[in-house]
Amino acid sequence: MSIMSFAKMNTNLPGEKSKSLVERRENIVPKGVSYGVPAFAESADGALIKDVDGNTFIDFVGAIGVQNVGHSHPKVKQALHEQVDQFIHTGFNVMMFESYIELAEKLASLAPGQHEKKVLLQNSGAEAVENAVKIARKYTKRQGIISFSRGYHGRTLMTMTMTSKVKPYKFEFGPFAPEVYRAPFPYMYRRPDGLTEEQYEDFVLEEFRNFFVSDVAPESIAAVVMEPVQGEGGFIVPGKRFVQGVSQLCKENGILFIADEIQTGFARTGRYFAIEHFDVVPDLLTVSKSMGAGVPISGVIGRKEIMDAADPGELGGTYSGSPLGCKAALAVLDIIEEEGLNQRGEEIGKIVMDKFKVFYDKFDCIGDIRGLGAMCAIEIVKDRKTKEPAKDLTNQIIKEANKRGLLILSAGIYSNVLRLLMPLVITDEQLAEGLTILENSIEAALVSSGSVSLV
């Protein structure tokens, strides 16, 4: 009895049609806009993407965390069709529409904390962070913003300044926004020898306290912005001890705690918001990516008194909280609840981490496996003792996976982390096949590089 294969590769990459489109792209699109696989999409459904040459890929990227409810979900498509038939855009600051209010109410009810909340809707994750900073400064009457080492918050001037990785995000793009400071963030895998995880957390937390003495006075800081799990930074999961410690220091010093949930939100970690795992209630929370299932929309959710600090006209934008985005987001929230995607996120995470343990025992290039819910990663190294990053090998694994029909991306400050962000509607069979392709790709990359493939 043959087993159905979901990944189907009819051509080498790129196929003839994609090759032609790549050539056209090179003539018209700036080289600063990067791409992963050299292929062009024709259709997508659930956790599968078909390209213009007839190749079908299992998607472990989800448009970098955008497709938690899967590609082209019927309920999202229906919601969009219905909205297009009514109207496409009026501008909420010109002629309002009910879906903005309904979405804001639902987001406020789902966000952590029993306090009264208000919600601002925007277009992109970077816009959400920018506006959270504006609101924090307006409310506190302070200027300083603290982000963390390896953090990623966007590519606009403010968010690029807050982002840690220099290349490709910051190199030669300065000068940067003033009054932005970067604090240490725990990286368990790379902690100093001899320290337990608990001791290391305490050490980094103490460094954070000292930060207010050596780098900036707490009285000048408006907000601390933290990803509950660092995304672009390499899927770094902090301990609850650290997150709660930072939150408490913020409270003691009148500093707002902002949770950046743009990549971690909407069931990715097995909760609506990853900050829930740490029993911390943020003052402000930023959302985007999977909130709209591919339709641009983002938001800032926050305490009522903080969100009301800005006066009329000081927040908003032409397309902010568009009718299409609001309808897509409302459909997404219904799907998460009706299809139990928070539970599914936990299930996927367990399946993936169990498989990763097998990988770890088999391949000595794997230095660390980690994750929270279905936000899982493998760190690739040249040597487990030295932990030297293996960027080239990581890139080779991705290429091997692509040519076998699996979409996967790297992350991390050293670009040596394989990150998994598959749609949460992926079937068990598709997930298993994707993980098998990944296993075969690691082995093929090791063999082609001349490295020892097995432990």
From TrEMBL:
Its cofactor is pyridoxal 5'-phosphate. It holds the Pfam family Aminotran_3. One of its GO terms (biological process) is gamma-aminobutyric acid metabolic process. Keywords: Aminotransferase, Pyridoxal phosphate, Transferase. Coiled coil: none annotated. Its EC number is 2.6.1.19, 2.6.1.22. The keyword Ion transport does not apply. SUPFAM superfamilies: PLP-dependent transferases. GO terms for molecular function: (S)-3-amino-2-methylpropionate transaminase activity; 4-aminobutyrate:2-oxoglutarate transaminase activity; identical protein binding; pyridoxal phosphate binding. Pathway: Amino-acid degradation; 4-aminobutanoate degradation. It catalyses: 4-aminobutanoate + 2-oxoglutarate = succinate semialdehyde + L-glutamate; (S)-3-amino-2-methylpropanoate + 2-oxoglutarate = 2-methyl-3-oxopropanoate + L-glutamate. It comes from the Bacteria. Belongs to the class-III pyridoxal-phosphate-dependent aminotransferase family. This is (S)-3-amino-2-methylpropionate transaminase. It comes from Bacillus salipaludis.
